[in-house]
């Protein structure tokens, strides 16, 4: 077979120029290498021109042109000795920056001419940096893709965290434009979707709040860098709710001006109610101490006043029977003194009961028992006679461990209040049912159809001496005593009411321990 020669059209400089152009062209490095291998094969009449790469799995062929195929087992030992020119085979190692990338292999049966070897060596020198650059580019692209994926995952995680928070949250920039709007802000009948909010100014979205007030609050946070926090009440959802609003300044880096404000709205209605209950409990405890001291200081003088007034009344009556002239106003004053002294003694006695009620003798029983007893005692009273009553007992209500007398006292007080609020008309409902929390396993509700209680008064009804009744119709201690008794039994008492729609007083007690 004739030895291959490069003619004028495929002279070394022409071949090298074509290879350089192919490597410089746009496209994937594998396709460019394949083009080079095809070009060399056609120009030299080679039986094989192949590209081999060093990989973690060993030496593998990446591209091949021609009909022959050099096996990897034959090529690997040849590379250990460096570049090879052995009979029909020319092997040029591909090295870039001291790093072995692979090898370029040329096989021409009958031998490889010197000018072809020279051109082939030059092609290997051109191909090595192109392969290294492609590898670096791929690594860079892969790293960039990985980093982009990480950033996307972090961004998604942050969005999920923000959306999972049980608070409403939004962020505005210095132009008052919304940059973050979590899913909680979308909830409810007053919610606004994220798509509608992002990019808009806060004043375009929050129509219920005065724009100038919002602007002043935001400007103050931007100016001072201090967090703002306040409570607000709203009926936007149809019921009165209390929200804690927190505005937090944010800066991109320390020392830079504040660029954004994070606003968090947290529903603290239940927390506020709990705080008020704790405050009432503390007030009641203080009242108990006051009552104890009051008895020691007031009971004895009251007794003396009552006895003296009684003696005076009897003396005036005796003088009148003996024919003496006794002014009517003197007799009225003496009897008024007796009556009011008795009333004061009754108030002090109630205070003592409130302060020293103790736990009483406790027993395990069904709440239905004390409810029936309370109703039996109250039904004969005139205030109950016109009312319809209905009683519902769930069959699975747990028993309670409590003082029957004290629990009956509480139920009777609630029933009397309900009857008085109904003005002798309507239906009074008593319901006993099971709760879902073991600490509130037994629920007793007294439901009336009365006048209802204004919201402004609801927070005060368990306070000592607070009453909505007229003068002389109550001391304002009834509900305070009920609250104290239920608290001593490890429970709580709450109320739902609306003007014109009646009230529901709810007793929640723990169930009796299971033997």
- What are the secondary-structure elements, in order, as H or E? HHEEHEEEHEEHHHEEEHHEHEEHEEHHEE
CATH architecture of the largest domain: 2-Layer Sandwich
Gross morphology is: rod-shaped
Give the class-level CATH name of the largest domain. Answer: Alpha Beta
Work out the helicity level.
Answer: 40-55%
Give the number of DSSP strands.
17
Query: Biggest sheet, open or closed, and with what strands and sense?
Result: 5 strands, antiparallel
Query: The CATH topology of the largest domain is what?
Result: Heat Shock Protein 90
- Mean pLDDT, to the nearest integer, reads 80
- Tally the helices: what do you get? 13
Q: What structural class do helix, strand and pairing data support?
A: alpha+beta
Walk across the major sheet and give the strand order.
Answer: 2-1-5-4-3
Count of the domains: 4
CATH homologous superfamily label of the largest domain: Histidine kinase-like ATPase, C-terminal domain
């Amino acid at each position: 077979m004739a030895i291959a020669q490069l003619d004028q059209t495929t002279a070394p400089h022409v071949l090298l120029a074509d290879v350089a152009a192919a490597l410089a062209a746009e496209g994937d490095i594998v396709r460019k290498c394949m083009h080079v291998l095809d070009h060399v094969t056609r120009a030299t009449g080679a039986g094989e021109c192949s590209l081999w790469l060093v990989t973690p799995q060993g030496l593998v062929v990446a591209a091949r042109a021609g009909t022959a195929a050099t096996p990897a087992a034959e090529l690997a030992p040849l590379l250990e000795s460096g570049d090879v020119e052995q009979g029909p085979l020319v092997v040029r190692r591909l090295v870039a920056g001291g790093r072995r990338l692979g090898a370029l292999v040329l096989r021409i049966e009958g031998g490889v001419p010197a000018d072809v070897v020279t051109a082939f060596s030059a092609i290997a020198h051109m191909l090595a940096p192109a392969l290294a650059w492609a590898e670096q580019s791929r690594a860079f692209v892969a790293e960039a893709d990985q980093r982009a994926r990480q950033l996307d995952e972090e961004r998604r995680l942050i969005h999920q965290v923000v959306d999972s928070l049980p608070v409403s949250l939004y962020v505005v920039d210095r132009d008052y434009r919304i940059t973050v709007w979590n899913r909680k802000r979308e909830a409810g009948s007053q919610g606004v979707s994220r798509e509608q909010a992002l990019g808009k100014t806060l004043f375009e979205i929050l129509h219920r709040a005065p724009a100038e007030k919002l602007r002043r609050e935001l400007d103050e946070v931007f100016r001072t860098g201090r967090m703002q926090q306040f409570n607000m009440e709203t009926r936007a959802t149809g019921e009165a709710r209390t929200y804690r609003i927190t505005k937090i300044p944010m800066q991109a880096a320390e020392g830079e001006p504040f660029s954004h404000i994070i606003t968090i709205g947290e529903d603290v209605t239940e927390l506020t109610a709990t705080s008020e209950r704790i405050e009432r409990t503390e007030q009641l405890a203080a009242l108990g101490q006051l009552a104890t001291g009051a008895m020691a200081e007031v009971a004895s003088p009251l007794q003396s006043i009552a006895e003296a007034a009684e003696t005076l009344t009897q003396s005036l009556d005796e003088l009148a029977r003996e024919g003496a002239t006794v002014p009517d106003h003197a007799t009225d004053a003496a009897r008024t003194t007796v009556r009011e002294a008795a009333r004061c003694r009754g108030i002090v006695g109630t205070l003592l009961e409130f302060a020293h009620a103790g736990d009483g003798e406790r027993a395990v029983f069904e709440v239905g028992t004390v409810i029936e007893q309370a109703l039996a005692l109250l039904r004969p009273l005139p205030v109950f006679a016109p009312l319809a009553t209905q009683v519902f007992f769930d069959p699975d209500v747990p028993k309670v461990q409590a003082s029957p007398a004290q629990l009956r006292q509480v139920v009777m007080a609630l029933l009397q209040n309900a009857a008085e609020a109904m003005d002798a008309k309507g239906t009074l409902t008593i319901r006993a049912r099971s709760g879902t929390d073991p600490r509130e396993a037994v629920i007793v509700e007294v439901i009336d159809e009365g006048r209802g209680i204004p919201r402004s008064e609801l927070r005060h009804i368990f306070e000592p001496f607070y009453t909505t009744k007229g003068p002389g119709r109550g001391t304002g201690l009834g509900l305070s005593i009920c609250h104290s008794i239920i608290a001593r039994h490890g429970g709580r008492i709450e109320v739902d009411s609306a003007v014109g729609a009646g009230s529901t007083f709810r007793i929640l007690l723990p169930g009796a321990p299971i033997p």
